[in-house]
Amino acid sequence: MIHFDNVTKVYANQNRPALDHVSVDVDKGEFVFLVGPSGSGKSTFLRLILKEERPDSGAIHVAGKDLSKLSNFKIPHLRRRIGCVFQDFRLLPNKNVYENVAFALEVIGKPRRFIRKVVPEVVELVGLEGKAHRMPDELSGGEQQRVAMARAFVNRPMILLADEPTGNIDPATSIGIMKVLDRINRTGTTVVMATHDAAIVDSMRKRVVELEDGKIVRDQSRGVYGQAY
Amino acid sequence: MRANFIFSEVWIGLRRNLTMTIAVVVTVAIGMALLGVGLMINSQISSMKDFWADKVEVSVFLCKKNDPFPQCKGSGGVTAQERAELETTIKAMPQVESVQFENADAAYKNFREQNANNTVLLSAIQVEDMPESLRVKLKDPETYGAVIEALKGAPGVSNVVNQKELLEKFFSLLEKVRWAAMMIAIILVFAATLLIGNTVRLSAFNRRRETGIMRLVGASNLYIQLPFVMEGVIAGLIGGVVAAVLLIVSKVFLFDGVQLYLSNNSELSWETLASIITLTMVIGVLICVLASFVTLRRYLRV
Predict the structure, then answer these.
(1) Measured over all CA atoms, what is the biggest interatomic distance in chain A, rounded to whole angstroms?
(2) Which end of chain A is flanked by fewer CB atoms within 10 Å, N or C?
(3) Cross-chain Cβ contact B1/A109 below 8 Å
(4) Answer CATH for B54-162 from 3.30.70.1530, 3.30.70.3040, 3.40.50.12780, 2.30.30.40
């Protein structure tokens, strides 16, 4: 599903590469934790999958497509198959829960009838039934992140990328967020989650890829966060 | 659905930047109106040139009794013999096509027709005030120089007036006005481009959250950019409509008014005006679209 082959990425005005000859494979339906200290290359890894950045060398395949051969015109179609969740939720403050989720479908031109059918389903999947007409500022941090997950998942992407989704959320609420991510993973969606949260990684017992200074230093199935932290 | 979404976004964008939108509309309107006036003057000049092309004559005015012109001093006006000699001399010139004598009565009649609206002037001028003249028509209106040289100062001639010279002064004045209008129009178009650029930049900044999410969920570039471009198009269209109104007003009150004093046959037609309005509108909208697109490429990453 995601295939990195000897990928190196150096940002302009920086000597040290953000990713240094990284090769990794993520299969369909896998759940992968991406761990490592700040600046180790986790976010760069996720941005490369979205083709927000281009690698300096090496090849990246996502959902069977060679990203280096993907024209700019086709990037939106790639992104429709990838859902994204962030630490800061990125909801539209002037739209309610339903509208925030529906927005993701409206802007890719889905018919209204389809939107009316699938949005309530996804809102229920993330555990927000009955709160569809609340505004984001009326929701807790955990609930806002559930809205963001509903929006990321509503178009049934093949891959869900989560960049520290529990970074702004207390540990008790984080468990609920992880349950939703697990539920999404069980529908066959590949999940890649970058995180600092050792407790979550240790409790989930999923594959762990650890990055340090842009290099993969550990790739362990059913792993833990690691002793050093 | 799509159209609905885009129009609501456009409406929100225009309302948020209301003052900027007004600035764009006013600049586009004045710029396009001046461009249109320039084009109107242009078509007037060419239609008037056509109208006058076969009508310009060299008028050889003859001395009358007590004429104040120095050449005529003391004489009791042109004699019949002098007039006949003049006519033969002129007819003998190779450049001349025909000569016609116009007596005072005929001159007075023409004068009355040309100044039908000016009652003050009409009441002040009598038949006796009108000079007699020989109307010389040239084969080529450009060759007036030699004819005028030969006739100036000939006995019995008070003055030689070349209509072409008068017309040319008038046309060169019109051309200057046209150039001025065009230059100001170009400056205003430049200002409008910058204003639109700024409006789009503000809009893009205001809506960066929405566009960021649109990018993320895979909205196509066109879909992301269209609301911004539409804002420009609508501002341009409103400006174009205002410009059209200004042009119609200037035709009715300015151009048609001036025409009364010149010639009725070269009036600016409504068809010409319609095509000028269409052209200015298309240019206005095109400028808005181009300015929006160029700015979007800088401020909206896709």
Answers:
(1) 52
(2) C
(3) yes
(4) 3.30.70.3040
- Is the Cβ of B12 closer than 8 Å to some Cβ of chain A? no
Structure tokens at A78: 């790639």
Say which residues have a Cβ less than 8 Å from residue B245's Cβ, sequence separation at least 6.
none
The pLDDT-based confidence of A229 (bands split at 50, 70, 90) is very low
A interface with B, Cβ–Cβ < 8 A, is 50, 72-73, 76-82, 84, 90, 92-93, 103-104, 106-109, 111-112, 151, 155
pLDDT tens digit sequence for A45-98: 999 999 999 999 999 999 999 999 999 889 999 999 999 999 999 999 989 999
Tokens for A141, please give them.
């941090």
Q: Does B2 touch chain A (CB under 8 A)?
A: yes
Determine the Cα–Cα distance for residues B82 and B99; give it in Å rounded to an integer: 15
Compare A51 and B44 and report the one with higher pLDDT. Answer: A51
Q: What is the pLDDT of residues B70-112, one digit of tens each?
A: 777 666 677 778 888 888 888 888 878 888 888 878 888 877 7
Q: Where are the domains of chain B?
A: 3-52+168-299, 54-162
DSSP assigned state of B131 = P
What average pLDDT does this structure show over A138-165? 95
